[in-house]
Amino acid sequence: MTDVKISIIGAGSAQFSMSLMRDVCLKEGLKGSTVCFMDVDKGRLDIVHGLATRFMGELKANLNLVKTVEREEALKDADFVINTALVGGHSNAETEREVGEKHGYPRGIGFGGYFHQLKLMLSVARDMEDTCPDAWLIQAGNPVFDGCTLMTRETKTKVIGLCHGHHGAYHIASVIGLDPSKVTFQAPGVNHCIWLTDFRHNGEDAYPLIDEWIEKKAEEYWRTWDGSPLDGEMSRAAVNLYRIFERFPVGDTVQQNPTFSWWYHADDQTMKKWFNKYGGFLSKTGWDYYLEGLSKHIDRMNQLYKDPSTPVSSEFSPKASNEQHIPIIDALVNDNEAKYQVNVPNRGALTGFADDVVVEVPGIVSGRGVQPVHVGPLPKRLTLQILGTCVQRMELGLEAFLSQDKEALLNMILWNHRTRSYEQAEKVMEDLLALPFNEDLKAHFR
Amino acid sequence: MTDVKISIIGAGSAQFSMSLMRDVCLKEGLKGSTVCFMDVDKGRLDIVHGLATRFMGELKANLNLVKTVEREEALKDADFVINTALVGGHSNAETEREVGEKHGYPRGIGFGGYFHQLKLMLSVARDMEDTCPDAWLIQAGNPVFDGCTLMTRETKTKVIGLCHGHHGAYHIASVIGLDPSKVTFQAPGVNHCIWLTDFRHNGEDAYPLIDEWIEKKAEEYWRTWDGSPLDGEMSRAAVNLYRIFERFPVGDTVQQNPTFSWWYHADDQTMKKWFNKYGGFLSKTGWDYYLEGLSKHIDRMNQLYKDPSTPVSSEFSPKASNEQHIPIIDALVNDNEAKYQVNVPNRGALTGFADDVVVEVPGIVSGRGVQPVHVGPLPKRLTLQILGTCVQRMELGLEAFLSQDKEALLNMILWNHRTRSYEQAEKVMEDLLALPFNEDLKAHFR
């Protein structure tokens, strides 16, 4: 029996919160823990808390479930804070996208959501310094790379960023015809930009099998492909990146726009050529499909909540999710040492990057904390062009955010590869700052 | 009397060689030195050697002047090698410019000239390792930044890169109404990208005087400006860079295209707005004016050569030039310690850059050699965006050159801010490689 308190900020996402519930219910070593659900949306909070309570009952798990709309209450006495909050939801992003497109940025330009997320993350990490200075902050909401770098530089809070993109390595294995359970791999980089540096099947180097697949089977795979609009992991773009940069991109690395690889995203036609017949995850079709999936899920949760006769465990089967959050908490609490894919300050793990840049690398997690594993250098041009560009984008973003200087904000937009003129940058910036939900940003940037 | 041998590679440029002659003739401590002029163009070599011989006679200087078309002979027993060579001259660049424009790059995209210069520089530095391993290589030909980084990484030859761009600080002083002789300054960065970090008049901080000039006089200066098409040093672009990046750009820093500040160069109209009514140095008008100046100078040299009755010293007045080459040689030979503006591996002088990146910083030159002076960090966004982008461009160029991999070459073009599509990058690359004078590059990139 532990008396660990795990607080979830932004717990209104039932999908995410119930994943954690599955894991925490099944962890023997976390029996007796308190799980505190916190969200500013009381309606969704009630649903998640209600479903979680029923689920726990169905599993006869022994947890203390509480809910609150107050961050302060969630942080009080917390041992772990999992921050999955998304400020403003997806609708603001759609409004911003329209503004971006009006100014010549196909599919828009990331803006308010980015800064709002940074503000939220930093304020949670700062509050934790006061309220629960010994607690771990597990950052799940994006941007993990920028946010974790910001929080670890600006606060003393212990931060681990998590993502599930590295599971893409198993998808690569399965597409090229390997049994994923017999595959081991290493995929370091920065969050959403990770690369297969080692790939083994039954302990043997399996990179030659990727090469063989590309040579003999890729064309047929692309011709007959009939997957989800979101699936671009084994697309022409992925193979092209591998060709130029000498390592295979993993997970959503390939579908990054517009940081590096802008050239696959130049327009709708180009995206259809490189990703899939729909244009991939970031195309209008792909993104609408994604949002529709989210919205259907919310409807299903509402129904499940209103219908107590249906067991919650029929929707969320009581087996471990593949998320790392709860296993990592267990490792830290009970010294159950294991290796995870973590986002932590570099400290020499990835050669060629500053120690205070948060990298995504294997980390040994135990009672001692998180220790990044040294993975050495990536190929030179991958470091230079791809990761170098990601780091530069992140640094320019943080510089704009922290300096609060409008010139730095303008500079960030000028730097964007898709910006064509100074006037365009000025205009899109002013129009985005003029949106009602960006009023605070208009005051932030002087 | 010394027995120092100074060899000039690419000595056919009379303007440059005669500047050195003026300085070496006047340096007491270099009396008796051998100056060896080397150029593959025998015609121009004869002219320079002839003019230099007459000039020495007129000044009654005591030097041993020799000429050769063989690099081996120039390097043999050399103590100093000044490399000012430009492979292929300017006409190839004009042909490449046309190809670039055809593919949507206004004013073209740097290509063959860049790689030919790197090849030449590296081969000179390598030959020196064998022929004159103790000699200093003074690199005057561009690209100084990329070439010096390449040579210092790949060879043991001692390299100093020189440029006169930092004199622009005196131009700033004179435009804002100060006496340049009462000004001191510091302008570190990388070559062609240097920034006024300290600016004093009579020992007092003179930055407020720049601010005052901008506030009260700049608009009138721009409205009534009537200088050379090449002059953009105090242009709207320079003031805009200062506004965004918090330090004033010095010399040709402001007219760099397309590495950073591509936004001032988007098209002819944009250049006219930001630089001057002609469009600045890199506009068609500016560049044609520059080439015409060079060509007129060559004609004048030819005439002077054919007319022994005119004293050479009537064209090249026998007073010190403002070039640093000969004073630095004097400092090294005779331990005449002084501070110069040098391009050398960083070794901690400029914070935030690797030790093996060649930076332009003050250096103490003496019998001990060259010791970079620590200047610390530049403002964060200047380091990140401007210098970071310069370093990334340089590193991608060297990676393409050294890997000899066509994918790395393509990647360098994809990275260029003005590239709009993958196909555009492929096509411009293939067309440039297909030019007759780039045949060796076609073989170089596999």
Look at the helices and sheets of chain A and give the structural class: alpha/beta
Radius of gyration of chain A: 22 Å
CATH fold field value of the domain at 5-91 and 108-163 in chain A = Rossmann fold
End-to-end Cα distance of chain A, whole Å, is: 52 Å
Helix amount of chain A, in percent? 40-55%
CATH homologous superfamily label of the domain at 5-91 and 108-163 in chain A: NAD(P)-binding Rossmann-like Domain
| Main beta sheet strand tally, sense and closure of chain A | 6 strands, parallel
What does this protein structure show overall?
Two copies of one chain form a homodimer. Helices cover 47% and strands 15% of the residues of chain A. Chain A has 446 residues and is an alpha/beta fold. Among the domains of chain A are: 5-91 and 108-163, Rossmann fold, CATH 3.40.50.720; 166-282, no CATH class. Chain A has a six-stranded parallel sheet, with helices on both faces. In chain A, strands 7-10-11 form a three-stranded antiparallel sheet, with helices on one face. A three-stranded antiparallel sheet of chain A has the order 8-9-12. The mean pLDDT of chain A is 95.
